Amino acid sequence: MSILLSSNYQWVLLSTLLLGFASGLIGCLVYWRKQSLMSDALSHAALPGVVISFLIFQEKDFFLLIIGATISALLGAFLIMLIKSTTRITSDTAMGLILAVFFGGGIVLLTVVNRNSNGNQAGLDSFIYGQAASMIWSDVVITTILAATVILIILIGFKEWKLLLFDPNFAKGLNLSIKGMNTVYLIILVLTIVIGIQAVGVILMSALLIIPPVSARYWTHSFKKMMWLSGLFGGMAGTIGTTISALGSGWPTGPFIVMISGLIFLLSLFFGAKKGIVVEYLIFRNKKNEVLKLMPPAQIVREGKR
Hints:
The chain is an all-alpha fold. It is 80% helix and 0% strand. It is globular. The mean pLDDT is 86.
């Protein structure tokens, strides 16, 4: 338990808290744009960039690695749009294609790195499943700053994001640059993914973007409240998952964060105030009882016999 009192753990916890909150916020935009598979494809597409960056510079500098991951993920996004616009292949098929090819290429490159004497010392395997405990002070600072930047961009432009999602024609009438906002959206989405792959991993990072907004949807019909709830759920998952991972020896962080997210989803699915299964059942039963009270006794008997 002494590890929970260490300053290193507390700083790592702060970075994963902000990462989870940022993922929940950007996840709402992904959810309403129906691009859940896009987040999965881009997180997997970031792996080759991480390994290539290490091969070029021969050091595990987090800043250099996320630059490589960003370039690789943006290249994946560009190829998805190129395939969609120039061929008859649908967008979901293009995303699945890029996901498989880039991730497969990343695993091949990772195998090459691990054959060298410095391969295991580089710790690049942690980028697959995530390992927050492997983060050093400079990694924490970069993650915290970039996550806070993503949060500020989303919160400052909340009205603009809402217009872009629900009324793009009205946004055009207000002279908002749809192309510019789409570019900013893609950049902050990629940024959130690449800063999270060390803590959560490339395989499971998309879950931190998808599960919180889906869970929040069961609690409210308000987009603003949904965004705050999604950020809260993401922050909770990041905090609790990191804590559980820190208590073990070499336990990967990503799976625990996703398991906590899954638990939050199950609670929301059954007990969500707006669309939860239990709540909807109680509402249905109350309505049925009210109808039965208004029905004459003879009709109630006939209905019961059917």
